[in-house]
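S1.2 Input.
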Amino acid sequence: MLERNPEGFFADLDQARAHADEAWQRGIPAMPDVLLGLFDGTNLIGSCGFYVEKLPKLAHKGQMWGVYVRDSYRGRGLGLRLVEALIGHARNHVEVLLTGATTAGAPVYKKAGFESYAMERDAYRVGGVSLDCEMLRLQLKRD
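S1.3 Output.
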């Protein structure tokens, strides 16, 4: 995903390749944090992650990250299904779900009910190209 769509992620391919497999395995989250996978048989075709903010004053919020669907599976609504599955999980753990997306990726989140609250200009750069990041939030429940 980082090789084919580097503009969709803050992570850097070279940095990711530098991590040993063991380091990645240790990084697999524990509940309530999750990493969801979407499979076609045994082939991983999509994923997305979630974590609850760890600081007590922020623990009512969670972050959705790393939403990805392989190119050959796009256009079938699978990204939206992944996001909706993650929202279902997040509802049991946080009141607010946050994420960020490039302008191209934001429509999927908006279909799932997210609202834009800010735009970070020049949020990151891929191959010398500056990309903006739309900050999105979804109110899951009220205190």
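S1.4 Remarks. Residues 87 and 97 are 8 Å apart (CA to CA).
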